[in-house]
Design a protein that fits this description.
Layout: no helix or strand
């Protein structure tokens, strides 16, 4: 049952770590209210002005934030799983280590938003402008990044398992230590990428351009590299067990020490 606040005045109140599960705060004046660590699960915050507020650690799972202003808010480690963000403003917000699992961020203005270590599992980031953004250690499992602009982005140690990166131009994107197992990288551009020991097990790299890429000791087991361009790529010591290399271009590629057990090398171009 949600908290009943009918007729209450909360302006300036200290609600640190307060439990306001299911509370209807639409229309309330939250000026000066301290909400750090508060539990606002399933609360109604429609249209609320929370610009620049400290909402670190706040639990907003399932909360309704339609039309809310969260610009420049501190949402570090906040929980927003299942929250409704339709029409909300999040520019400049600090979402470091925040949990946004399943959120639809397509069309949102993410200018200045901090996403280091954010949990973005199954989040829709299709078409987003993430140019130059720091997504170090972000969890992007199953995320949709198709059509997103990632030029100059940092994805160091990010988890992109099963992410959709179809057709992405990843030149200049930092992917050191990233996990790309099962990711869809079909027709992606990875020319000259530095990917030593990267985990691409089961990834779809059909038609991908990996010319001159550094894939030393990369894990490409069961990966689909059909028609991929690996010209000049360094695959020394790479694990290519059961990989599909049908029609792949391997001209000038270094395969010394690579494990090709069970790999399909039909029509490979050397």
């Amino acid at each position: 049952m949600g908290a009943t606040l009918t007729g209450a005045t909360v302006t300036g109140a200290n609600l640190t770590s307060a439990n306001l599960t299911g509370a209807n705060l639409q229309g309330f004046d939250l000026t000066g209210v301290t909400l750090t660590g508060a539990v606002l699960t399933n609360a109604n915050l429609t249209g609320q002005n929370l610009q620049g507020r400290n909402l670190a650690g706040v639990k907003l799972g399932g909360a309704v934030l339609s039309g809310a202003n969260l610009a420049n808010a501190n949402l570090t480690s906040a929980t927003l799983v299942g929250a409704t963000l339709t029409g909300a403003t999040v520019t400049g917000a600090n979402l470091t280590s925040a949990n946004l699992t399943g959120a639809n961020l397509q069309g949102f203005d993410l200018t200045g938003v901090t996403l280091v270590g954010a949990i973005l599992t199954n989040v829709n980031l299709s078409g987003q402008n993430l140019q130059g953004r720091n997504l170090t250690k972000a969890t992007l499992v199953g995320a949709n990044l198709s059509g997103a602009t990632l030029t100059g982005a940092t994805l160091t140690s990010a988890n992109l398992t099963n992410a959709n990166l179809t057709g992405q131009n990843l030149q200049g994107v930092t992917l050191t230590g990233a996990i790309l197992a099962g990711a869809n990288l079909s027709n992606a551009t990875l020319i000259g990428q530095y990917l030593p020991a990267v985990n691409l097990a089961g990834a779809n790299l059909t038609g991908a351009n990996l010319t001159n890429a550094n894939l030393v000791k990369a894990i490409l087991q069961s990966a689909n590299l059909t028609s991929a361009n690996l010209s000049g790529a360094n695959l020394g010591g790479a694990n290519l067990r059961a990989a599909n290399l049908t029609g792949a271009i391997l001209t000038g590629a270094n395969l010394s020490g690579a494990n090709l057990t069970g790999a399909n090398l039909t029509n490979v171009v050397r």
